[in-house]
Design a protein that fits this description.
The chain has 100 residues and is an alpha/beta fold. 28% of the residues lie in helices and 29% in strands.
């Protein structure tokens, strides 16, 4: 799935190339689900990964952080990879279309 929103955000659940921002779920060694959100480096991994800045225990604030911290300060076209489970759980397409 690839979706252009507000003419400057491309949302995708397909890992092709290197997206500008990633948002996905991961699991800790002891089985807890966590959420990762951050700018990527040239290798596609979160640049300067910092547990206090990029790792979240709850998904409820992810959309607000994505819009307020990543999209509102950016005036160029941005590609965002989001895992398909988060696209559905957060109703991300509809929410971004309303907010942007």
């Amino acid at each position: 799935m690839r979706k252009i929103i507000a003419d400057y955000v491309e949302l995708t659940d397909e890992w092709v190339g290197t997206p500008d921002v990633v948002m996905y779920t991961s699991e800790t060694a002891d089985g807890y689900e966590i959420y990762i959100l951050g700018w990527t480096g040239k290798n596609g991994h979160v640049k300067n990964m910092d547990n206090e800045e990029n790792v979240f225990m709850y998904k409820e604030n992810l959309l607000d952080i994505l819009v307020d911290d990543f999209l509102s300060c950016n005036e160029e076209f941005i590609e965002i990879y989001v895992s398909d489970d988060l696209i559905e759980d957060l109703d991300l397409i509809n929410e971004l279309e309303e907010r942007l």
